[in-house]
Model the fold of this input.
Amino acid sequence: MTPRNLDRQWHQLRVQLTEATLHKHTSFRVNYGNGYLAVGSFDSVPPYSLLNFRRTTNSNLDTLLDHVLDGPTLSRDILFDVNGHGFIGSDHLVKFGLRLPSDQLTWGKLENGDRRSEISIVFASYSEEGKRLGHELVQFEIIRDEALLPITGDGPFSKSETVILPENTSRVRVAIRDVATGKVGCQDFSLREILSAPRESNVIR
Amino acid sequence: MEKSGTRTDEALPVIVLLYDGSIDVSKDDADLMAKKLLYRRAIFYQIGNRRDEPKGLHPEEEHSSLQSISRQTGGRVYSIRREDYLKAMNSVISGLHFRYTKA
Done:
């Protein structure tokens, strides 16, 4: 069953038996879950959803991000989990899964009571010599549905992104910035480390 | 809908509560608990001892609220005598065989 209304709300379900079924069986029991959340409509794991998603390749970065990406030390003002893996048949296509605890971000309050935060994520690729070869910049707003919080719990915000790495990439730096405060957290991966993880099937849709 | 017999990568949780006594749950708490379980695709079964005289301040309401968690998640409540625990567990397992999930 595909829910018709992808409105990110809780929906009640009711099962009704047909007349034919009622006539066919003299005794029966029907057990069913009587509600659902259409999780596919969130673009993330509820209670989080995304707004104004933008993604650019090799766009101009501000001075702060440039400094963070090319600096020798890793900024750790934002703590997050990230892991990467490749795809079968490709050494340049990589998928990163990010998990960001909600207390690492700044949340503003919306009129309807929900919370909003805005982040930027950069996936920067480097050569063996440490030269930056390119980067992907992903920017979006995160909305946290406060009414759903009692049901879903306040788990970390999750997002996965697939990036194409340039030729000769040796290392990837993943940086997350909380736009409200400018705080940044970074983690580095060697491409060898990423490609040695179990790979995903490369499905073309 | 997806039949439970087909192979899926995700394990679907089942909670079986074995209890002997009264559990204090308000209707609001029960409704919220049912939604939490449904969100995690969990089914909630209860197996309790049959009592001739219910205890507690509001035994009927407690009983009803507990039952509603199971009913809302697609589970069942078994009120049995001690010797029937195995039969109840087998009935739970049998119910899981016909489990369907939303795609």
Remarks:
- Chain B touches chain A at residues 1, 32, 34-36, 38-39, 41, 43, 71-76, 95, 102-103 (CB under 8 Å).
- The mean pLDDT of chain B is 77.
- Chain B has one domain: 14-101.
- The two ends of chain B are 6 Å apart (CA to CA).
